[in-house]
Structures
1.
Amino acid sequence: MRRIAAKYLYTLTSAEPIVDGFVEVDEDGLVVRTGRSEAPSAEAEWYDGALIPGFVNAHCHVELSYLKGRFSKGTGMAGFIDQINALRDSSTRARRVSALKAQMDLMWNAGVSAMADISNCDESFEVKASHPMYTRTFLEVFGTEPEDCPAIIEGVRDLAAKAHSFGLDAAPTPHSCYTMSPELITASSIAGLKSGFLSFHSEESPEEEEMMIHGSGPMWENRRAAGMSTPPVTGEISLKYFLSRLIAGLETPVEGNVLLVHEVCLSEYGATIARRILAHPFIAVCPRSNQFIHNALPPIELMRRSGIPICVGTDSLSSNDSLDMVSELFCLQENFSEVSLGEMLGWACRNGAEFLGKSARLGTIEPGKRPGIVLIEGLSEEGRLTDASASRRLV
């Protein structure tokens, strides 16, 4: 039996920490007991920091890890897409696999116990299959031409079969409104929701909204210059368009856990219709990625009012400087100081586990669970994050 104590223990059964708390775990990492230490100075293993359950990185593209440091910042979404297209095939498979493995190891050691990962190919499968981190792989599809839809769906089903042969939880998922024909959004969503899970890039930038509402702007011109079909100009927000493509093939409320990723342009109207149409909506915020690409941040206060559970992701190293969850939380704290550390940790641990359907094991520190025990050091005297804060796995 191992007893670990710290200045703060966030079990995340509530947003408030246990001051001078302890957790006892067995040799397999099973939580046996939690409580408040009567004599903190006498604890054999005591830390000046916060104990938390393992993080859940709710949105990552780990297979893009080889692109670290190669992208220009502040280009907007159209400029970012141009860079992805130019650099995506700029390294060997062996180097790409090595880079993604290194990043998964870094995340694990920093306390990430589970990850919702986006994949466009099979390069991460073998690493994920042998890694201690739990992953659910979302096999992302693209395709702007309606006639290509059947072949794309057949291809992603073959990729899913390969992922399953490695023992991975994996299923198709649509990418975004602007990279897919209406038919492909519906078909890939239906295929993905057979697994019970979907992840969708939604309202990531003002450029996306301008494209969908008005049929203009940099992303519209980007698509036309590339000779691609453009999405229908609906005069409505892109989130409503996505939801309309779901109900074109599925009954409402749409069952399954649906993760709306980014939502930088979320409105009260969008949140309302999402809650009406989706049985189990979630939002994943990736604030440093949003700053990296177009110097924007998600409307956190609106999201909190909406009641839709918020999760936290890192996105990829093509649009971020690291895949560090504490840095994402510090960014949120610096820009939304009214949100407590306990509430943010709930987003980054408990809500992510709920989205992945892993709440029975992950997300909170409770007897009977194996969430991993993580230490955050470098807190302020008030128990807030600082620019020196960092996390490391203890269990």
2.
Amino acid sequence: MDELFEQKTPYSPQAEQAVIGAMLIDPACIADVLNKAKPEDFYLETNRDIFDTIYNMYIYGRTIDPVTVLDQLRVRGVAKDSSQSYLMELMQVTPTAANVMKYVEILREQALLRQLLHVGNDITQMVQEGAGEADAMLEAAEQKIYALRQGRTVGGLVKISTVIQDVYNTISDAGAGEANIPGLPTGLTDLDNTILGLNKGDLVLIASRPGMGKTSIALNIAKHVAKTSSKTVAVFSLEMSREQLATRLLAGESLVDSQKLLTGQLSSAEWQRIGEAASTLSETDIRIDDNPSLSVAEMNSQCRRLDNLGLVVIDYLQLMQSAGGKITYSGENRTQMVSDISRMMKIMAKELNIPLVCLSQLSRANEARTNKRPVLSDLRESGAIEQDADIVIGLYRDGYYDRECQNPNDAEAIILKNRHGELKTIPLMWLPEYTSYVNAETRREDEEY
């Protein structure tokens, strides 16, 4: 009777054998198979060893046939007395190499079922052992399930050969693209060339004093990514309402003065531009949540449910209540809270495998200096933020402090930290009437006409 209650491990020995057999019969199919299958998808150790051997032989450009594979099995120390006859058997039992991708599909489905079973057991054990509060366990469970949906595992040691292949594929994809940057373009050319775009897993911090336009530049970036990448962009606004953000997006897209837009006193040409802008923005997949009390864990939970997520924008860090869970902080522990939030945001970017842009306020420390350009230490509760962020961009305008200056709308994006390259100052132009930042040369070219 006990056997009835034993868990049956999902796997298909026939599919495993057919995949390898097809690769031996027709090496031309190996590239397609390796794009979809990996050694961990094989449950039987013998099949896993053979597939792993073929995988490594292919990477190094070696000839693949039953003789060379058998030789490499011996070199790698995984050959058995029956290996030669087994390789021949695999070729004999495979009906045809033409259906190899169907065999791969069965293989991956069984592997996913095994992973799901494993994760289910982990969650059951976690609940039975009472490992933490319910909210924390729910977060851990969601994280494990999300990793499965993305075809990844949470943690675990990975062979360097697998990582190298992933990096090689990323470099190849970047080289094949039209842009010279690996990440998503922000729409600000000089900024993109310096930070190499918005890259997966990166936490990008944009910091300034209040009113400098950090929300505006974040919306510019969100809009550009949504329009050019066809990916979903999630915007979490803890300060402004959905309607306020949409109004800013409309003003920037239509190039209609935001003050006139709010009053509705528009010419027929401006109404036409508004209509065209509304149509363009409606075709993008920008999602906005203006709940002011969201935690990082709650944002992460929402983002896991988005299938085509490309970018997350959070406005802004100092308004966030907590990282997640039921941890409460006293007034003296504000720095620890910000530290936890910034760490959770970096974990969120890595888990979702997308760039996360977070806005942050600067302290008043720069206002006491003659040169008021921001530096890293101006970040409020800055220690952990400096450490967790991959890129920190400080916004600066002379016109913010002196409206009588010669060029009040000249602006600078100062790269204060950049894990992908150099630190430099990028010239920008602030368009107050449209609440937008643009490339510096764009406005100058317009003024020449």
